[in-house]
Design a protein that fits this description.
With about 200 residues, the protein is mainly alpha-helical. The protein is built from 8 helices and no strands. It has helices spanning about 5-40, 45-65, 70-80, 85-90, 95-105, 110-120, 140-155, 165-195. α1 (about 5-40) crosses α2 and α3 (about 70-80) crosses α5. The N and C termini lie far apart (about 50 Å).
């Protein structure tokens, strides 16, 4: 198999995964919207907007089958509010509450272990400023500083990113961006269909 055929097969697989993700997201999002709409409480515009966003976030996380750290972080955050438990339980399954409590502990494991070691041994190093050492390249130091700043921004943008290392944050960010694109595509199509019907 030559490189062009491998590239075509790879694109086909990605497109199939994207279509499958869209279908799964639509099904779960509609189910989530129905659950939110069935509540007897009258909602104002702001409350409706929050419920639509919440159901879309839980639906996309659930559509990813909770295989990524960002999807687990979204569900974990949603389960902090007892009012969201019905929505999470229906879209992700009733066992999801217990799964996230366990997942949260394992994601903090590396950070917590490092903090414990520092406290035990009294290691309190001040952060070094990245200054060029003798013989080192100023451009290298600037590039490292720039990469560090940008990964910090990524960690703030991706759900659960603050607990990820530099390597996994990039992989998670790429997956999160693709999932957000699926979410936006579905929502745009929904708006187009509803405006053409009216």
């Amino acid at each position: 198999m030559n490189l062009c055929q491998q590239n075509a097969n790879s694109k086909e697989a990605k497109m199939h995964n994207s279509c499958q993700l869209k279908k799964e997201f639509i099904n779960k999002w509609v189910q989530g919207l129905q659950i939110c709409n069935s509540s007897s409480k009258k909602m104002n515009l702001l409350e409706r907007k929050k419920k639509i966003k919440l159901s879309a976030d839980i639906a996309i996380a659930s559509a990813k089958n909770l295989t990524t750290s960002w999807s687990k972080a979204i569900i974990s955050e949603a389960t902090k509010d007892e009012q969201n438990m019905t929505l999470v339980g229906n879209l992700c399954g009733p066992e999801s509450k217990f799964m996230y409590a366990h997942q949260k502990v394992t994601s903090h494991k590396r950070t917590t272990s490092k903090k414990i070691l520092q406290k035990c041994y009294g290691v309190h190093r001040k952060k070094k400023k990245m200054e060029p050492r003798r013989g080192s390249n100023l451009a290298t130091c600037i590039a490292k500083r720039l990469v560090k700043k940008r990964t910090q921004v990524l960690k703030r943008l991706v759900p659960g990113g603050e607990f990820m290392d530099e390597y996994s944050i990039i992989k998670e960010a790429l997956d999160y961006i693709l999932s957000l694109k699926v979410q936006v595509d579905v929502m745009k199509n929904l708006v187009n269909v509803t405006t053409s019907l009216s």
